[in-house]
Amino acid sequence: MLTPPPVRPGILVLSLLLGASCAAPLPPGELTFRVGYPDIPSTLLLYVAQDSRFFAAEHLRVEARVYATGREALAAALGGEVDAAVVYSTPVVLAALSGEDVVVLTTLHRADRLTGVAVDPRTGIQTAADLRGHRIGITPGTSSQLALDVLLAEGGLDSSDVQVVAGQPRDLITALENRQIDAASLWVPNLLTVTGPGKARLLVSDVYSEMSMLAGLRPRIESRRTETTRFLRSLLRAQALIGRRPAVVESVLRPRFPRLSPDELQTILSHSRFELGLSNLLLTSLRQEAAWLEQGGEKRDPRVRFQSVVTPDLLEELSPESVTLLTSPERALR
Amino acid sequence: MSLARKLIGPQLVILVLIAALAAVQILVSRGESERLGETAERLQRTGLRIQRVAQLFSDTGRDLLSALVTHSEVLTRRIARSNEEIDVLLEELSHAPTSPQGALLVQDLGRMRGRLVEAQRSVLQSGSPVEGRSAFVRWWFLDQRANALLADLSADNLRGADRILAQVTASRRRADLLMLVLTVLGALTVAGTTVYVFRGVVAPLVRLTAASERLGAGGTVERLEHRTDELGTLSRVLATTTERLVDANDELQDALALRDRFISIAAHELRTPLTSLSLQVSLLRRRLEQTGQLVPIRATVEALVRQSKRLDELVTELLDVTRIQAGRLELHTEPVRMDGLVREVCARCAPLLEAGENRLVLEVEEGVVSQVDPSRLDQVLVNLIGNAARHARHAPLEVRLWTTERETVLQVKDSGPGIPETVRERLFQPFAREPGSTPGLGLGLYISREIVEAHHGRIEVETARGRGTAFTVHLPRARETPTAALAATP
User: pTM for the full model?
Assistant: First the structure.
């Protein structure tokens, strides 16, 4: 009499795992786009598009992954974990300088005075020039590094005149509270939560402007052109919605950043402009940062052309008026 | 509404519609052209201002670098003048934005400009190399960004040309759409007015025409009582006239029927006493001749004989007419030697021809046989020869007989004055007499034609003024003619 072969527990577990790993089948016509981003207010357009189901309307299933910084999100994009990343300019410049085939698809927001240095008031530091010799924390490879460099330059200093301490933003805040460092270069919302009356003093340069952007690896973006187009179209719809109903901004950000007071949120909004675009200002900022970082010792891959890092094709297809970048005489004459 | 208004009204509607739409098109096009012209002019002015600001930025940067080295007051003043002009230009730009994006860029440029001027001042006022370096770095940062913003503003302004092109395209599309609407409306209006004119004018005319054509068959004309225009009036007049004509025709038919009935009765009633009278006259003549009493009254007796014979002929004709009109003309056909028949009739008519001094020319094909009623053919031939003799006195008279493959042809031709045109059309109609002609009822040719047609033949006439008249009788040939059965022989 034949007996059925025994079920091996290993095979059963493997089958269950395989079954579980298979995502629910996509409805016909629906595509998937993976995006990495830091959970900060400048990611507003992405939040609005999600909350308003603009992605769903485009038959796009967006898998959003949160990273501690834009730099890490970009690293994930360059590593193929995600299709694109929301990131500030500095990580993009560093990636380009190192020879990565990174492309910027659009800016997502621009802000002034929202990246700066929080100073322990007990140190007596009043101006940028007073930073000489102090321990200052930064998150290397992020805008905090550049913001500090610009501030030091305004004070007639450079990074060699201070003691730079590297760390993640949360670690820097803890270190600042514990007086392990005298100052920390941070961005919102952390910058606003640690500074203010009775808290850390804020030193900020009005020369530096921060820009968040959607960036990715060129081959990956090119291979996922349809998904990227739908993603950008959803963001444009989010921008239009904000233009029509500004109150949407607060209703989207408030539940996501409960620690921000209404005043702090208002400060962020008053210094920020949330819009998609590719401009000469972006290209100039990237080039300036590159020059600045090179001056600070960064190596530059000789093949780097920032003109080609900024890729206007997709955005121009969807929203020509959002692109003011003069890329060639022909384009300028259009 | 009059017919003229019905015809002209729709045309006026079409004209007004086309004129109105054309006016709208012209006004819209003109308004759009003016707006586009204004936009283009604004773009041009903005472009010139941006260009001037860029030039001043460049000059200021160069002057600043020179001033750092020379500490020249002249350069400082020139920088200040450039800054003033830039401020004025930026102010002007802020009042004439070419797009919402451009307005934001002008705002950004204004803010950046404030920081740039401050940075310039720091550079010019720096007391130490360290201060000078940091101030210059700050200025350099801001100057490049201000220039980038200016380039963005310029690009946005250039986008205005795209917007103008888009507006032109949209305008053209609107014009095309308007033209399409115009065409469709025009076509609909034309179709509508055509239907209106057709139903209002053409259809009634067609009905009236059809009704007029039916008049001959006893139809009537519809009265368009609801119409107040000329067509309505025309239909009513036609209908009334038609009714009168129908009434008159009915009366005429009644009169003709009465006449025919009278003729029939009269002919039948006259036949018996007339036959008796003829016999009595003949008997009287014979007795007078036997008793030798005829000589003194011969002329009177002969006149009595002729008149009674004439009366008999007239009554015979009238009876023939009544038979024909009643469809009771009977033929007793048999194979007949036509050459013999012709010769016999000509011989019998010899006195008549002699009286008219007509020379007879007789050309007869021998042995011609036809399936005919000999007495009726005799009647036809006598009638034709008699007519010729009466109308062509002192002239030759030709009688011919010949055959073709299918027909036997008889011809009586005179050299008289010919038949007037006024008579030709009704030559074969009963009671058709030429005014002033010889006495008779005008029934001879009518009866002759009926007899010939009863033989499935036809009778033709050729006549010309002053060149005589020829009557030709065509009879179908008999298929088979047994010689032994011939009714008439020479």
Answer: 0.60
